[in-house]
Amino acid sequence: MSETREPREMESRNNTAREKQWSPPTILPDPIRQPGWAFRWIRTAMMGASDATNVSMRFREGWEPVKLEDHPELEVMPDHNSKFPGCVEIGGQLLCKAPQEVADSRQRHYEGIAAQQMESVDQSYMRENDPRMPMLRPDRTTRVTKGKW
Question: Whole-structure pTM over 0.85, yes or no?
């Protein structure tokens, strides 16, 4: 008995691949990465009101607006009444970039502030000393579990 088989060239992984799942698009698209640059979305408006203070502060930190001509993959409907024509702005968020060293330095700065705040909380917690209630060092570990709770 001869079995009818498909020719070898008809077999492919595309024929057996799973159907791709649809997912909604992200609100703020990611630009194509460039070596040596960090990207960040900066708020330019909130609830329809301009937030010039926030934008000015971020520019002083070293962030600069990304030009749409440098990232044509982000071509979307521009915000009406944008104060940054020719730049990538979506929903009151302006895409900005800064040298990676500046972004890393900023990150280390804020991590240091957070560590100082946690140390201050720990010292305040340990200061209250009642012999009836022994103080244990706070446990700040996280666990990740899968499945049912």
Answer: no
